[in-house]
Amino acid sequence: MTKLNTTLSKAWKLFTKNKKYLALEVLIDVLFLAAILYTTMLIFVPSAETVIKAGDALQAQMAEIPESEIYNLENIAMQNEEFMTAYRQLLKYIIYFFTIMTCLFMAFRGPLWYITHKKLNRADPKVFAWKFPLLALFWAFISGIILVTYGVLASSAEMPLPLVSGKMSNALALFALLVAAYFANISFALTPGKQALKSAFIMGVKNAKTLIPAMLANALIIFVATLLPFNIIWTLPKSTQTTIIFLSSIVIVTIPALAFARLHTTMAIWQKKQ
Hints:
mainly alpha
């Protein structure tokens, strides 16, 4: 607990000392959130329409087959051209969404991590220009594997002989994503160093007793800072003024909290590395 208090105190002092970067961090994060929102709306509408088409095709197929053949519905649906067309279209939208989100992450989170390292005088733009995108692509690939595996397990939960239950598949996917996020953040914090990915796994395991509490503290800070704006939306009457207060609280509270969490993570990791 003493070590955590020390790293939090040091991170806060460095954070307040480098307030000149905060406006830029806020701008980048606002643009990042706007890009995510735009992409989500751009892909969500056609995706929702495709899901409806697939559901209608499946319902029509179910109405045509006897109850004794319901167990074979998956194989029958695979032969339904209308369903498969909608299914393939939905897969395309999912791939588009995942690819765009990965590109947005590299374009916006990379500069934010660079600024974090610049506060610690460890930023090399040439190194960041190629290393961060590679790390981001690696973790996007890992996340994709986790989500595809989850899809398979969740689908099997509906079968007569499931591999795991629905609750178990949810728990396993959440655990895997949390572990991936843990090591990903360590690798991003180690971007300026040599063999960042290898070092992330070694340090993440070797110093788990120190780094996990630091990560949990960051998660708590981010949770509280994110909860505040939404609490405003939930409690205040719906109005233009409430919307302005909501957006202002994100800019003033949530985004700076994210910046502080990145700095604290990086300081905690480099303190163990040295």
